[in-house]
Amino acid sequence: MGMGAAGVVRTRRWGRVVVLLTLLAAIVAGCGGRPRAPTIAVRPVPAERYPRPEFLADTAWLAERLDVPGIRIVDLSPLADYRRGHIPGAVHVWWQDLVERQNPAYGMLVDPEGRKRVIGAAGIAPGMTVVAYDNAGGRYAARFLWTLLYTNYADGRLLNGGIATWRAEGRPVTRAMPAVAPVALDDRPTNDAILYNAYDLAPRLGEPGLMIVDARTQREGLETWGGLLRVGRIPNARSIPWERNLGQRGTSVVREPGELLSAVYEGQGLRRDQEVIVYGLTGVDAAHTFWTMRLLGFGNVRLYDGSWAEWGAVNPIEPWPIEPLAVGAAPAPPGAGGPALGAK
């Protein structure tokens, strides 16, 4: 029996549907399962080669301690990425849960009750060693570790190379969610020696011996949040974009220590015996530079938690002075070509 015009149309439509479904299935198959291990052109330097190795964890070191009760692994990648695969035993913490939402200067650390809630929910007990990582260059992991150092709840190590290096080395990844019992944390004296604020900084501008580090990239330096921020920098600040700390673009590999010191920090006139105040677009963004400088042996580094979100506000609490924006010329890490990190 012949096929009518309506039947021909239906057949063509079904043919298109089958093609679309086939393409969709191929896309889903490509996105699902264990993500392809990235190419790591720069291998992480062993932690022992840095002046303060206790601030860093090698992947091999962690692999030998996955089942150690006193070690808590924390993944600060987006939740969807965490669910697609994480280091066995890693709990998920989202960095924005540690941000004070009601503060006009976005990014500042949440109040003590909020800190206890987030840290306790991750099963972190006093005396533990926390190894943190993310898939964003390590900046959110560093912020979490800075928070632990400030609150005195636990010691912390940044996983050198992050989960990208872990995967590239063929180490195990799982989708299983660990069973973690929450911990009821008590109040503890905070480590105020690593925190700074605008009211203390403003009268010290230009003080000999005080070094201010602007950790923003060029793109972050030009960010105005829709007209809420001015473009500029804190007077006398030395610009060292935080991504200069990385050994390779797109990874969390910390740069080789000798190169970091000579080409990046000492190259900008910083000495390890100086007092250093670090700021970024927000306090969250400044943490990676804080952590890297501590790793390099800078013993008197403080994080300005309000950072440019507070100092550079169009309507600041106080009329803080600013200078024209200038992005540092410290050598960028090696990569696959293209503009320097932070360039527009």
From TrEMBL:
Domain Rhodanese: 67-175, 206-319
Keywords attached to this entry: Pyruvate, Repeat, Transferase
PROSITE patterns recorded: RHODANESE_1, RHODANESE_2, RHODANESE_3
Highest taxon, organism lineage: Bacteria
GO molecular function, one term: thiosulfate-cyanide sulfurtransferase activity
InterPro entries: Rhodanese-like_dom, Rhodanese-like_dom_sf, Thiosulfate_sulfurtransferase, Thiosulphate_STrfase_CS
UniProt-recorded name of the protein: Sulfurtransferase
Species: uncultured Thermomicrobiales bacterium
Lineage, opening ranks: Bacteria, Pseudomonadati, Thermomicrobiota, Thermomicrobia, Thermomicrobiales
